[in-house]
Amino acid sequence: QLQLVESGGGLVQPGGSLRLSCTASGFTLDNYAIGWFRQAPGKEREGVSCIRSTGASTNYAGSEKGRFTISRDNAQNTVYLQMNSLKPDDTAVYYCAAARSGFCFDFGSWGQGTQVTVSS
């Protein structure tokens, strides 16, 4: 059974950093694209970043450019999202999702999410 598990969320002060992990079980991530998404209370889900099976990555939202970095470690079957200079607006539930095509669309498998709260 394909499963994605996010971890690494928590409470952090503005300006702080977190590294989120997305670990797969039941399949290997090598040929999948993995995307990170987030949903804040009362808002729609939005894309944050995506890494293709080739390792090429894209940050979706302009505000994340330069602050968020996505990476993958196929040996660990894990994709990471390093988040620096966090702002209160980054508060949300963060989800990872897998796209079998290897490209950043048509995400078919989703994790349960991890809460990130940025507050002083």
What's the SSE pattern?
A: EEEEEEEEEEE
Identify the overall geometry: globular
Instruction: Give a count of the beta strands, DSSP E runs of length 2 or more.
Output: 11
Q: How does the helix and strand content classify structurally?
A: mainly beta
User: In percent, how much strand structure appears in the residues?
Assistant: over 45%
Radius of gyration, whole Å: 13 Å
Q: Which stretches of 5+ consecutive residues score pLDDT under 50?
A: none
Could you give a quick summary of the protein structure above?
With 120 residues, the protein is mainly β. It has strands at 3-7, 10-12, 18-25, 33-39, 46-51, 57-59, 68-73, 78-83, 92-99, 109-110, 114-118. The strands form 2 sheets. Strands 2, 4, 5, 6, 9, 10 and 11 form a 7-stranded mixed β-sheet that branches.
Can you characterise this structure?
With about 120 residues, the chain is mostly beta strands. Helices cover about 0% and strands about 50% of the residues. The chain has strands spanning about 5, 10, 20-25, 35-40, 45-50, 55-60, 70-75, 80-85, 90-100, 110, 115-120. Strands 2, 4, 5, 6, 9, 10 and 11 form a 7-stranded mixed sheet that branches. Strands 1-3-8-7 form a 4-stranded antiparallel sheet, with no helix packed on it. It is globular, with a radius of gyration of 13 Å. The model has no long low-confidence stretch (mean pLDDT about 95).
